[in-house]
Specification:
Monooxygenase, Leucine-rich repeat, LRR (right-handed beta-alpha superhelix), 21-stranded parallel sheet, 22 helices
């Protein structure tokens, strides 16, 4: 006799629950019984905190006691006092491995010191985009958490209060400087990954310090740092034997080893598998030297780069025929004939990105589908799909999961239908701002794509409905901002897309409270909805609708200025954040 489900040990249930796609699905399971609640609580390893719940005494402590296996906490969208939350995290007893405080106002020294004393398991620290981030904060991180292995200090805003004599601060006091990086690198000897992008006062001295002190460095991102040159990048590559990933922009990469230390350095880079270059001058000579270096390259990007030719590119791909990720965004000279040739060398590629290549049409799409059997992700946004007759061989590639075709203004219903027949396993489709398609075109894709989980039709005024005559049982995310979606469409979506979790209706003028009632009644898993500029929905309507759907966790109202503080508190007590 088969063993009853309720007699299964917790370990079996954990194995089953862990096969779910996302921890957000644990919520429904936790409502089944106390045992499932306990199991899902133990399985949650990531926690995102959005609202200042610490105003209720002990709330965060109870949360940490409940999810005691949490390894990652995300505070990047937190709206309260970050200092108090960091202090509570430091005293929580969690074995935290990653903390994200990006976008916060500043780092509190007391919180950093407490983290350093109590959380020696913390290896990943993201403090990108802080409103104030200078050498003093950098040194506090170095002194309190010298064991950090991954650090993001990119794009600090450094917005100071003018009333606190900001005018009298010198650049070395109001920004991250070479000296700060020198001290940081001397203390974080185990650093493996760092992002210093957007720190405009850093020079080659910072790269030299990282190169000398952080011998385990595996990944560096250096973008929008105008004082850092190719000389220090070359030195870094040459002297960092563990370096596996380099992401840079704005360099002038010539060919001669005299002109370009980077070229002569690749021979030393035995671990380098990822090179991402943006908006840089790249010569054929440089690509040729890259070929001769014989590095284990798996990911390669020349987005917005110039100076090279088809010959140099072809030589590179002939050598590195095992690339998994290949990106040539904004390369104007590429044609369908070029890509027909290059696709023969991309048989192992999983992702190919060719956005802003105006010389490419649906013919390129067809050869990629045919010649790249492992391909899962195609990005051909802002190309010329649909130009000319759409006569292509409809060869299926069931591995393709993601298709981004944003702003292909010449894309027609007929062409979209033929592309649909090639991708029967598609899960994400983005045709935002493809103004030449309407419901007929999108329906041809959806009929053959019942596995679609994310659909983005932003700016498509011609699309007024989806799923009219068939179910979309897997659809979880619908981005339909400024589209033609109206109340009638919402009723259909509610009836056909019952697994929907995220809905963006920003600027959909035909949406009213009546249509929202239909979708909220049927989509019992809906968690987020954006109603910005939906002028026919009032705050009173919204309050009633939120109370009718307990699953909602975030609602963006039609006009944020109309929402009162009291309404925000009412929503929060209901478990829903009233946000932007």
């Amino acid at each position: 006799m088969a063993e009853r489900c309720e007699d299964l040990p917790d370990e079996c249930w954990e194995l089953i629950f862990n096969r779910l796609d996302h921890h957000s699905q644990f919520e429904a399971l936790s409502l089944v019984c106390r045992r499932f609640l306990s199991i899902t609580d133990r399985l949650r390893t990531c926690l995102t905190i959005l609202y200042p719940t610490i105003h209720v005494h002990g709330t965060l402590s109870k949360l940490f006691n409940r999810f005691h296996r949490v390894k990652t906490i995300d505070l990047s969208r937190f709206h309260g006092e970050i200092d108090r939350v960091v202090l509570e995290i430091a005293g929580s007893g969690l074995n935290l491995e990653a903390l994200d405080v990006s976008g916060s106002h500043c780092l509190a020294m007391e919180g950093l010191n407490r983290l350093g004393l109590n959380m020696k398991s913390l290896k990943v620290f993201n403090c990108a985009g802080l409103w104030r981030f200078c050498d003093s904060e950098l040194l506090a991180i170095a002194n309190s958490m010298p064991w950090v292995e991954e650090l993001d200090i990119s794009y600090p805003r450094n917005v100071f209060d003018l009333h606190r004599e900001f005018e009298n601060l010198s650049p070395d006091k109001a920004n991250i400087t070479d000296e700060g990086i020198r001290v940081l690198s001397s203390k974080l000897r185990g650093l493996r990954k760092i992002n210093i992008s957007g720190n405009e006062f850093l020079t080659d001295r910072s790269i030299d310090a990282l190169c000398s002190n952080c011998v385990l460095l595996e990944e560096i991102v250096v973008q929008d740092c105008p004082l850092i040159t190719h000389h220090s990048i070359g030195s870094l590559i040459r002297n960092s034997p563990n370096l596996g990933s380099v992401k840079v922009n704005g360099l002038r990469l010539f060919g001669s080893s005299v002109d370009l230390p980077v070229s002569g350095s690749f021979g030393y880079a035995r671990a380098l598998s990822c090179i991402v270059m943006h908006n840089s001058f790249v010569s054929d000579e440089f690509l040729s030297m890259l070929v001769k270096s014989d590095i284990p390259l798996k990911r390669f990007s020349l987005d917005g780069c110039f100076g090279f030719t088809f010959s140099g590119l072809s030589l590179l791909l002939q050598t590195y025929q095992y690339l998994e990720y290949f990106s040539l965004v904004g390369v104007d000279f590429l044609t369908d004939d070029h890509m027909s040739h290059l696709s023969n060398y991309l048989s192992t590629s999983i992702a190919v990105k060719l956005g802003f290549c105006s010389g490419l049409t649906h013919l390129t799409f067809a050869v990629l589908v045919k010649n790249c059997p492992l391909l899962e992700d195609i990005d051909m946004g802002r190309t010329n799909l649909g130009v000319g007759e759409c006569n292509v061989d409809a060869v299926e590639n069931p591995r393709i999961r993601s298709l981004k075709l944003v702003k292909n203004v010449n894309l027609t219903n007929e062409c979209l239908g033929k592309l649909a027949s090639m991708c029967p396993g598609l899960q994400l489709l983005d045709v935002s701002y493809c103004l030449g398609i309407d419901e007929e075109g999108i329906l041809s894709f959806l009929r053959s794509g019942s596995k679609i989980r994310q659909l983005q039709i932003n700016g498509c005024w011609g699309i007024k409905n989806i799923g009219t005559s068939f179910e979309l049982p897997e659809l979880e995310v619908l981005q339909a901002a400024k589209s033609g979606i109206n109340d009638k469409a919402l009723a259909t979506i509610g009836a056909r897309c019952r697994m929907l979790q995220n809905l963006n209706l920003k600027g959909c003028l035909g949406v009213t409270a009546g249509g929202l009632k239909e979708i909220l009644t049927n989509c019992r898993r809906l968690r987020e909805i954006n109603l910005t500029s939906c002028v026919n929905v009032s705050m009173e309507d919204l309050v009633r609708l939120v109370f009718s759907r307990p699953s909602l966790r975030k609602v963006v109202p039609p006009n944020v200025s109309f929402a009162t503080e009291n309404q925000g508190k009412i929503f929060l007590r209901h478990g829903c954040l009233l946000g932007v």
